[in-house]
TrEMBL record:
Pfam families tied to this protein: Lactamase_B
Record keyword Metal-binding present: yes
UniProt keyword terms in alphabetical order: Hydrolase, Metal-binding
SUPFAM superfamilies linked to this entry: Metallo-hydrolase/oxidoreductase
Gene Ontology biological process: glutathione metabolic process; hydrogen sulfide metabolic process
Record-linked InterPro entries: Metallo-B-lactamas, Mito_Persulfide_Diox, POD-like_MBL-fold, RibonucZ/Hydroxyglut_hydro
Organism listed in the record: Lichenicola cladoniae
Descriptive protein name: MBL fold metallo-hydrolase
Ranges of residues in domain Metallo-beta-lactamase: 35-225
Annotated PANTHER family: PERSULFIDE DIOXYGENASE ETHE1, PERSULFIDE DIOXYGENASE ETHE1, MITOCHONDRIAL
Tree of life domain: Bacteria
Signal peptide: none
Listed SMART domains: Lactamase_B (SM00849)
GO MF annotations in UniProt: hydrolase activity; metal ion binding; sulfur dioxygenase activity
Length: 308
């Protein structure tokens, strides 16, 4: 992890806030079934857009897929007259299926994720005993971002920050003065993401979070999930670096790394697996593509026994 990249991200955010660069328009789409916030972010000057962390609706009891959530995004993009340049994932999600290939087919754009997805593909390729048709080289994606990689959204500058811990491949995306944190931080009253999936690491998560919290305090943070902390009535998924630093219940300023690691590991040991982890990972490790059809033309997802 390079602090040089973090300094570049801070400079980008400060520049936009000082009027040297465009602030993005952010529209969020919250899926209550999976507690996931998806985002469409656009440059008001060029109407160029990015989609982050889309959801494909999946009913596990019936095995039925639907596209209501993704269709809301498509209708917003069309109504606003946006051109989609990127369809981004912050990581291979374990709680919902990605609609990225569907959105890419309908709206265009390049599909991207962090380079460490190759590691995730290897781990889960083994767990699901995927065949040789699953390449495990990231080739399902159009671009694999490294820490500090820059890209453009119309005239707006954007960059990827590698924030591993929840999974080895997690990225946060800095777009103008907004940061899309993926599964690192949740709202200050709720805390942080778990770090106990295969390849997860609570110590790495702490360091990634500290890195995000060294961005300017007024930086807008857009989270991937909200679970409504006890006592809160509304779902909320936007906060700031300053609010996280002063009041995140698990990782506010002053919390020591070893104490965080002990807390996170103890808490993770009490959590059950997310309801959709088995279907989600099989689809998301393939960039959101469903497994190939079998000889009868139907597609199947596997349930590995005693593996997770
Ligand atoms: Fe996640």
């Amino acid at each position: 992890m390079s602090d040089h990249h973090l300094a570049q991200a801070s400079a980008l955010i400060c520049g936009v806030r000082a009027g040297r660069g465009t602030a993005p328009i952010v529209e969020s789409f919250f899926d209550e079934a999976t507690n996931t916030a998806s985002y469409v972010i656009h440059d008001p000057a060029t109407r160029s857009a990015v989609i982050i962390d889309s959801v494909l609706d999946f009913d596990v009891a019936s095995g039925r897929i639907s596209r209501k959530s993704a269709d809301k995004i498509i209708s917003y993009v069309k109504t606003e007259g946006l051109t989609v340049g990127w369809v981004l994932e912050t990581h291979a999600h374990a709680d919902h299926l990605s609609a990225a290939p569907y959105l890419k087919a309908e709206l265009g754009g390049q599909l991207a994720i962090g380079r460490e997805i190759i590691h995730v593909q290897n781990v889960f390729g083994k767990i699901f005993n995927a065949g040789t048709e699953f390449a495990r080289d990231g080739s399902e994606f159009d671009r694999l971002f490294d820490d500090g990689d820059h890209f453009m959204v119309g005239d707006m500058q954007a960059m990827a920050l590698h924030v591993p811990g929840h999974t080895p491949a997690d990225l946060a995306y800095v777009i103008g003065d907004a940061v899309f944190t993926g599964d690192t931080l949740f709202m200050p009253d709720y805390g942080t993401a778990r770090a106990d999936f295969p390849g997860g690491d609570s110590r790495q998560l702490f360091r990634s979070i500290r890195r995000l919290l060294s961005l300017p305090p007024e930086t807008r943070l857009f989270l991937c999930h909200d679970y409504k902390a006890v006592g809160r009535e509304q779902f909320v998924w936007e906060t700031t670096v300053g609010a996280q630093r002063s009041s995140n219940v698990q990782v506010h300023e002053g919390v020591l790394e070893d104490d965080f690691v002990a807390m996170r590991n103890a808490r993770d040991a009490t959590l059950s697996m997310p309801k959709l982890i088995i279907p989600s990972i099989q689809v998301n490790m393939r960039g959101g593509h469903l497994p190939d059809p079998e000889s009868n033309g139907a597609r199947f997802l596997k349930i590995p026994l005693d593996a997770l």
